[in-house]
User: Which sequence fits this backbone?
């Protein structure tokens, strides 16, 4: 296990980058705490795999350093970093049996035969392949081969870090849940530093202690699932986390008051917001009303998704989503929305503005 430090790290695939836009990974400084489980979350092309490959040694950054427990490994080959990496598509030895594939990393380290057998049996049980240990990998399905790749990554107990690059893409939905559960148990049992790349927010939020949200080559927030949900640091985080994502409404902010869609609302606290200002509100924090105070809005449709209803509205030309209970009636007379106390975030030029008196994050 190791504390991983990213020092002034950035990367461009261009030989002579001229501006920040030329960098696939924009400047980053961060310590990855020894023994924690992280998820790198973001849309395709945001820089997740670039960052993971720099940490693993498959890619040398064009700027900055990577340190494991204070030791500079920026130019060290992957083999010298003592990490295990599982890729998006399965990497197995087709001519070997399942057992031989799982044992391969341990045999390379000349481990005791009895210990190899113990670990292989344990990992085979975790990935549900105890009854296929003697089968050749060549005839297995893609998801079975990926389970072997996952098992080979998990079979070593002495690694500095376990790195997963969208490893469940080819796994069927039920097995995805099972394997995520096993990965969390592995982390609890052995305390490996784990970094898990995904574009799936459910995978990220259920796997990680902390989620690293990336957008356009930049880390826009690192936080717990609760922090990402309640206080998104960037509008992209609000949009990307949640289903539906956060509502964003253009607003004019003046201290503790906001002008939104022709209505004035009390924010409860003072804000010093300049630039392009918006209010961000999760659908869970919006209530529907007929008449009285609030922001004018009309219902455009209602979607019943089983556990609850998603109410789609139009507020002065801005689409808004609200969550209603499964059994809740949605009257046709609804013409106002209100925001729950504490459920509002203020943004200026896409970045969250803290209210007066809030402690720094």
Assistant:
């Amino acid at each position: 296990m190791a504390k991983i430090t990213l020092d002034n790290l950035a990367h461009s695939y261009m030989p002579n980058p001229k501006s920040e836009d030329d960098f696939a990974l924009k400047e980053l400084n961060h310590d990855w705490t020894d023994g924690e489980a992280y998820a790198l979350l973001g849309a395709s092309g945001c820089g997740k795999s670039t960052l993971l490959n720099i940490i693993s040694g498959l890619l040398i950054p064009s700027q900055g350093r990577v340190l494991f427990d204070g030791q500079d490994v920026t130019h060290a080959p992957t083999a010298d970093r003592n990490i295990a990496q599982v890729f998006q598509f399965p990497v197995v030895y087709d001519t070997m049996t399942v057992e031989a594939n799982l044992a391969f990393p341990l045999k390379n380290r000349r481990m005791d035969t009895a210990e190899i057998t113990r670990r292989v049996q344990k990992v085979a049980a975790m990935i549900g392949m105890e009854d296929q240990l003697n089968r050749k990998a060549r005839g297995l399905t893609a998801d079975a081969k990926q389970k072997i790749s996952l098992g080979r990554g998990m079979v070593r107990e002495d690694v500095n870090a376990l790195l997963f690059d969208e490893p469940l893409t080819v796994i069927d939905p039920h097995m995805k849940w099972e394997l995520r559960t096993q990965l969390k148990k592995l982390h609890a049992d052995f305390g490996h530093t784990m970094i898990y790349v995904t574009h799936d927010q459910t995978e990220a939020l259920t796997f990680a202690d902390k989620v690293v949200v990336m957008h356009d080559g930049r880390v826009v927030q690192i936080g717990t699932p609760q922090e990402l949900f309640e206080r998104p640091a960037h509008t992209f985080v609000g949009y990307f986390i949640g289903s539906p994502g956060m509502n964003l409404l253009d607003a004019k902010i003046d201290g503790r008051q906001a002008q939104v869609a022709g209505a004035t609302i009390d924010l409860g606290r003072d804000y010093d917001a300049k630039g392009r200002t918006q209010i961000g509100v999760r659908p869970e924090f919006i209530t529907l009303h007929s008449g009285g105070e609030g922001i004018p809005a009309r219902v455009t449709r209602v979607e019943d998704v089983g556990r609850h209803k998603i109410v789609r509205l139009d507020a002065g030309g801005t689409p808004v989503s609200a969550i209603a209970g499964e059994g809740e009636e949605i009257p046709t007379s609804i013409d106002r929305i209100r925001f729950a106390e504490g459920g509002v975030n203020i943004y200026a030029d896409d970045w969250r503005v803290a209210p007066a008196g809030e402690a720094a994050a």
